[in-house]
Amino acid sequence: MMSAKDEWQKCRDDFSKFVSEYFSTKSTLVESMLYTLKQGKKFRPFLSYATASCLQKTNSDVTAYGAAVEMVHAFSLIHDDLPALDNDDYRRGEKTNHKVFGEAVAILSGDALLNEAFSCIIKHYGHKPTLAIRLMQLLSDAVGINGMIEGQVQDINAQNLAVDYPALKHIHELKTGALIKASVLGAACICEASENDFKKLQTYAEAIGLAFQIADDLIEVTEGKAELGSYVGILGLEEAKKHLDATSNLAIDAIAGFTNAELLKHLVTENQNRKF
To answer: Does residue 225 surpass a pLDDT of 80?
Structure first.
């Protein structure tokens, strides 16, 4: 039996193989797309992978969907780093997309990644039209006016303001949590989860989405980037840590009834133990 670390590496390997074959055309646009798409730990694809394991289904069935979600995530990173938004020159120790390819290509590659995500779903799940429509609905809801982009707008408006905890939680349910939830629930749909199991996974996904953002805020404190409109800014350092633990426990409790949920549990503890 592989360790969680080895399973995560297998997921990354499967992802890399998939996107290399999917984006076989060579161009500046594709190079820019792949530059950001291949960065990072692949947290969201691994959520889909781990969900399939939890439901005792074949992990490869969710590879294309996990890649589609990561395309959306990469689009958001490219655009977030632009001068008009976060104006970042580096991400994860590497130059941001617009610093390598220029702002025009970065904007267009982000646009292309967003569109390609839905094309990927059609290409790989279109033989099951009902499933494909459901996956596209989940992903589009997670991105647009009821998801990530609206959350980003609300976050911009709330920067350096004394927003309260419920308002901040709602922002991050949209900005960060929606796409994380889509990673889990889309995989649950592909794996034909029962209604009861789907509800348990939804509770898990909502909890880990919140825990992920709280951990991000705690890390920003150690990097000297803490903002007034953050969990640490609102709750204080120690109380934010308590909320991280409580939310992580909620995620673990939600999947307690599954017999093969070790990878989903690993993602909770991995996030909980990120250095801050």
So the answer is: no
